[in-house]
Amino acid sequence: MKVLFMVSSFPALSETFILNQITGFIDQGHDISILAMTRATGKIHPDVEKYDLMNKVQFVDIPKNPIAKLVKALMIIRTVPKTGMRLLNQKKYGKFVWSFRPLLVYPYLKDQTKYDMLIAHYGSNGLILSILEQNMVEKSFTFFHGNDLTGFVKRFGKEIYAPLFESQITLLPISKLWREKLIDYGANPEKTKVHHMGVDLTKFQESTFKKSDKVTLLVVGRLTEKKGIDIAISSLKYLLMLGYEAELRIIGDGEEREELKAMTENLKLEAKVIFAGWLNQEEVHMEIEKADIILQPSRTAKNGDMEGIPVALMEALARGKLVVTTKHSGIPELVQDGHNGFLAPENDSLIFAEKIADALNMPLVNKKELMKNARQTVMEEFNIDILNMQLSEMCAGRIDA
């Protein structure tokens, strides 16, 4: 089958969940194309080269400059005036049309019939597909991940997805929570089905717990508000006060880097908190393997932005690592407190520190059982091979979407 993946940016190193889906479809023998709104910069996942993905992608390259964007839009209207005006019909499609994104994507998708199926990641891209309603293929799917149901909706309003909900596109939220939210916004429950993201278990060997005098805590992710990395730093301070010998390693970068470094200095933790920046996949794997506990103190940002179910957590559980995270978004669908990890409330660094202490103080037999449960959870519910096969069967119409 010929499959088009529509993504916001490519090749985004932080979006391994999309990459795993694309490479999984290639492994199944599908003919893959990728349409990306923007070109990502920075380090590239090795699978991008391994699967020659840069030769399978087209970039819309939507200008960030408003004037440049307007000029590009006007050129398309001049070429196809009737279609151009239809794609600016606010009454029919809502105020999203004034982002000009449907208009700018049109030249790349004016004939969708050359594909057997379309898979859009993020609601905004699915919305574009629904607005480009002419010549739509029979099987189209839109994945919802997080900000597309929180920050994006807060910006444009609940009615923003009305054209998508009225279309025949199947909605695939990655968690039960997002399914409930989509239905609350007006989606048809019969066309809204949870489909988790997943990880490749063959890439992760099961870890063994190593007793050590010094505890290594690890956070992996963008340094953004919703990741709650300040909570991890505050929790470290509490642990040190309780007498634990510990350090916190932070892999990633982002807009809060300087603020978090200043916080570290104010708490006099410079010797205990290491900002490693972005690392390549092999280096990240080594860091995770060396860590005693993986932390994910996620929380809702002030602008409403939320996590989905973080893939970094799936990867940690796939290794059977001890994890401490929060009762945030879809995370409790992956981590059950005391069964395969530990859960704390959002924004509570004291309880978060107590959960870390609980993990450290567990008898070895209980640690081993919890670590076994962690890998089993991923094997049964977040296994990318099984999930990709299910998605492929849905695309082919062999199982109900």
TrEMBL record:
Residues 203-376 form the Glycosyl transferase family domain. The keyword Secreted does not apply. Keywords: Transferase. Signal peptide: none annotated. InterPro entries: Glyco_trans_1, Glycosyltransferase_grp1. One of its GO terms (molecular function) is glycosyltransferase activity. This is Colanic acid/amylovoran biosynthesis glycosyltransferase.
